[in-house]
Amino acid sequence: MQEFHKVRRLPPYVFEQVNRLKASARAEGRDIIDLGMGNPDLPTPQSIVDKLCETVRDPRTHRYSSSKGIPGLRRAQAGYYARRFGVKLDPEREVIATLGSKEGFANMAQAITAPGDVILCPDPTYPIHAFGFIMSGGVIRSMPAAPDDTFLPALERAVRHSIPKPLAIILNYPSNPTAYVASLDFYKDVVAFARKHDIIVLSDLAYAEIYFGDEAPPSVLQVPGAMDVCVEFTSMSKTFSMPGWRMGFAVGNERLISALTRVKSYLDYGAFTPIQVAATAALNGDGSDIAEVREVYRKRRQVMVDSFSQAGFKVPAPDATMFAWAPVPEEFRALGSLEFSKLLIEKADVAVAPGIGFGEHGDDHVRIALVENEHRIRQAARNIKRFLASARGNLHNVIALDARR
Ligand SMILES: Cc1ncc(COP(=O)(O)O)c(C=O)c1O
To answer: Enzyme group, top EC level (predicted)?
Structure first.
């Protein structure tokens, strides 16, 4: 039987190859330190768990919930935007709860894309940004990931040379995997351009609260007029360490939110009500939970940058996110990020995410996630130091492992 049209467009997940290697190493009894997947290891704050338990005892919460999110939850998300960004949202028309931001993003793509629509997408980027649209029949044109002065010229070129004119542009700052952070001035330029050319802006703000500088990352919706063309996605997964709960939001332009609401009304009945109630309590909290999560990542980041660098693996300190985006050490560059990642598992018992999994422009890097404790991060650095010392002494053998040479 022929491969299905959609499935043919989804290449095997690159990360699966690393995962398989990791699983077989573990099956041999080896202790793999897993800095690969961006899966937060911190427990959800106790007060949020307690709220869930309390709510679930009421049998009325066991029925189908509301697809777009219970009113209190949407009000809480509007409250968060007002406090954190000074952005006023109508909870009825400009806010929808989603089953994690990934689901919201993918279904937004489904809601708005016609076959052949051109989408401007950063490379490297979190895979759903491209594949949500590819699954929806869209065509991707790659954009630089850095929010610097190369971006607007690339945007102008993209609009000049894309037929049809691009439907949407995707932004993700703070960015996974590169950890780039955008300024409000950058957003102003993009919004002005998008309004002029009538292009939709989809901003993924999953890492709004995981930042280490003095200034908190802005929202694109802070730009006056952004509401005309923008929707922004946020997530409780990282902010409150709730990845398994599947709770996120889309907020912004009413027409776009309404399109997503319509599609989702056909697909789901919303998250389990106790989850929505607990999420409401989390968002209405005083912010101390968020600050605690941020501090844990801040400390881990410092430990990682210091210990990895001392081990001979230079890792730039990320300004935000739970990831470091580390250049593959020069002498291993020719192997590519996947082979280097495999070597780290095989020889150092450390798993990282190969940059190629985020797009072809990611192949000189690996992404290192801060999802193990400080002690384990130091252990990873010691393992890597040993590996690098022996590999550097014996580099010809390592390079000989490169099947592509
Ligand atoms: C940039 C980005 N967007 C979205 C998501 C998905 O988050 P959620 O758990 O809300 O679906 C992630 C998860 O790693 C991410 O890194």
So the answer is: transferase
What are the structural domains of the chain? 5-43+289-391 (3.90.1150.10), 46-284 (3.40.640.10)
Give the C-alpha separation, 231 to 89, whole Å.
Answer: 12
Burial class (CB in 10 A: 0-12, 13-18, 19+), 286: exposed
Question: Ligand 1 centroid to 95 CA: how many Å?
Answer: 18
Spell out which residues line ligand 1, taking CB within 6 angstroms: 38, 100-102, 126, 172, 176, 204, 206, 235, 237, 243, 248
pLDDT single digits (tens) 146-192: 999 999 999 999 999 999 999 999 999 999 999 999 999 999 999 99
3-state class (DSSP) for residue 139:
strand
* Res. 87: pLDDT tops 80: yes
Q: Which atom of ligand 1 is nearest to the CA of 246?
A: 9
Tens-place pLDDT, residues 280-329: 999 999 999 999 999 999 999 999 999 999 999 999 999 999 999 999 99
- pLDDT mean across residues, the chain: 95
Q: Which atom of ligand 1 is nearest to the CA of 105?
A: 4
Query: Over the stretch 323-364, which tens digit does the pLDDT of each residue have?
Result: 999 999 999 999 999 999 999 999 999 999 999 999 999 999
Kindly write down the DSSP assignment for every residue of 330-372, as one continuous string: GGGGGG-HHHHHHHHHHHHSEE-EEGGGG-GGGTTEEEEE--S
Report pLDDT for 402. Answer: 54
**Other CB atoms within 10 A of residue 285 CB:** 16
Sheet holding 230-235, edge to edge: 95-98, 248-252, 230-235, 200-204, 168-171, 118-123, 139-144
For a substitution probing ligand 1, which of 96, 170, 176 has the most ligand atoms within 8 Å of its CB?
Answer: 176
What is the whole-number distance in angstroms between the Cα of residue 156 and the centre of ligand 1? Answer: 28
The closest-lying atom of ligand 1 relative to the alpha carbon of residue 101 is 10
pTM of the model: 0.95
Q: How far is the CA of 143 from the centre of ligand 1 (A)?
A: 20
Torsion of CA 227, 228, 233, 236, to 10 degrees: 20
d(CA 364, CA 354) in angstroms, rounded, equals 9
Name 252's bridge partners: 231
Across 254-259, average pLDDT = 98
